[in-house]
Structures are given as structure tokens and as C-alpha cells.
Q: What sequence folds into this?
């Protein structure tokens, strides 16, 4: 063990345990978003527009788990080969994260216009097929919204379904011309709010992961140099 700092060695092992856990979280969340039925129901046929960013995150999560294992083994066995592989892999992860972040920022800014263009052709909603109408009614009931773009007016006069009904005492309600209380928020707005809330969580996780990666690069190279100088 001469020439190798035990504090750095065990810190490296602890870091890689956290690194492996972060990879597991990213992989699980990314797969869930990739196959989420809720996202498919809301985003419709254009859900594939979000797949490139999610595929990158799935790859990142998988690689992080593998690198966490390699880094832990490299620290325990004091293997220069495993440590240098870990260092190179970590740099590649940072590059993938930057790419995914850019794609995420681009798609986030395009979500509203994408959904507006998708659902504009469905209005008025009461003229659509029974299958489409039933799906929209389920969305309204699940997300406490009414209509797709413009609220209850998307259904046309006297065609507002019961799934739009809202308790009058709730602040989210709106009053129709006929005096009926319905949800004020459209389903597209509800979806955008949900995406923004999830985006904040993803940014927080990505920032924390970036800090761990920086520590990992420092620890791995320091330990490598100490093993090299033994």
C-alpha cells in the first residue's frame, strides 16, 4: 500500500457507490419516460420527437452503472488499467450529458408549439371519432383540464362532456356561457406545467451528477498517479 493514500482510495470507492446509484436512478427514470403511457396519451403521434434525448439518457444511465463498478474495482485492486478506463469513460459521460442537456433545452422550448400544431386540427373536438373523444375525456378526468388548446370552447357550444366538470369552490374552475362550472386549464397547458416541473427535477439531478463526476475525475487521476509513482 506504500505510496497510495488510503483516504483517496476509500473516497474513490464511496464515490463510485454513489455514482452507481445515480446511474440506476437515471436509467430507471429515462426508461419510465420512454415507455410512459401518460406521455403517449398526451403527446400523441409526436411523442417520438422526445425519443432522441431519452435514448441518450438511457445510454448515460447504463454506462454510469458500468463505470461505477469499474471504478470501485479499480480502486480496490489499485488497477491502473481500470482507473484509466474509468477516467476516459467519465469524460465521455460528460460529453453525452452536455448533448442531452442541449437537446432537452431545445425540445423544452418547442413543446408548446409542437402540441399546438398537433392538436389544432382536432378542434372542434365534438367532430372527432368516438375513440378520440373518449381518449380526450380520460385525459380531462385524469389531469383536471378541459379542452386541448382553448379550454372548454374547444368542444363547441352545448357539447362539453361531464369530464370537464369542476367544483365551483375551486380556484381552477371557469364558468361557461350557460353557467356550467368547468376546469379553466386546457390539457395542453396542464401537460406543459407537468413537463416544466419534471424539467426542474431533471436539472437538479444532472447538476448533482456533474459534481460527482468532477470529484470522480479528480480522485481517479490522483489515485492513478499515486499507483504510477509507487
A:
Amino acid at each position: 500500500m506504500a505510496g497510495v493514500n488510503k483516504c483517496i482510495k476509500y473516497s474513490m470507492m464511496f464515490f463510485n457507490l454513489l455514482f452507481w446509484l445515480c446511474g440506476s436512478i437515471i436509467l430507471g427514470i429515462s426508461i419510465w419516460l420512454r415507455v410512459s403511457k401518460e406521455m403517449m396519451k398526451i403527446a400523441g403521434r409526436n411523442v417520438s420527437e422526445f425519443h432522441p434525448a431519452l435514448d441518450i439518457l438511457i445510454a448515460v444511465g447504463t454506462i454510469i452503472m458500468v463505470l461505477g463498478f469499474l471504478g470501485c474495482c479499480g480502486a480496490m485492486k489499485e488497477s491502473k488499467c481500470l482507473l484509466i478506463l474509468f477516467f476516459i469513460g467519465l469524460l465521455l459521460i460528460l460529453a453525452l450529458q452536455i448533448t442531452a442537456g442541449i437537446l432537452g433545452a431545445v425540445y423544452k422550448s418547442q413543446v408548446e408549439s409542437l402540441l399546438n400544431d398537433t392538436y389544432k386540427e382536432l378542434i372542434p373536438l365534438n367532430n372527432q371519432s368516438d375513440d378520440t373523444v373518449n381518449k380526450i375525456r380520460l385525459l380531462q378526468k385524469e389531469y383536471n383540464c378541459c379542452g386541448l388548446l382553448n379550454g372548454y370552447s374547444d368542444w363547441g357550444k352545448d357539447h362539453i362532456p361531464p369530464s370537464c366538470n369542476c367544483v365551483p369552490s375551486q380556484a381552477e374552475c371557469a364558468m361557461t356561457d350557460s353557467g356550467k362550472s368547468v376546469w379553466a386549464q386546457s390539457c395542453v397547458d396542464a401537460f406543459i406545467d407537468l413537463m416544466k416541473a419534471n424539467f426542474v427535477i431533471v436539472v437538479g439531478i444532472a447538476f448533482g451528477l456533474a459534481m460527482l463526476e468532477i470529484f470522480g475525475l479528480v480522485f481517479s487521476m490522483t489515485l492513478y498517479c499515486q499507483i504510477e509513482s509507487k
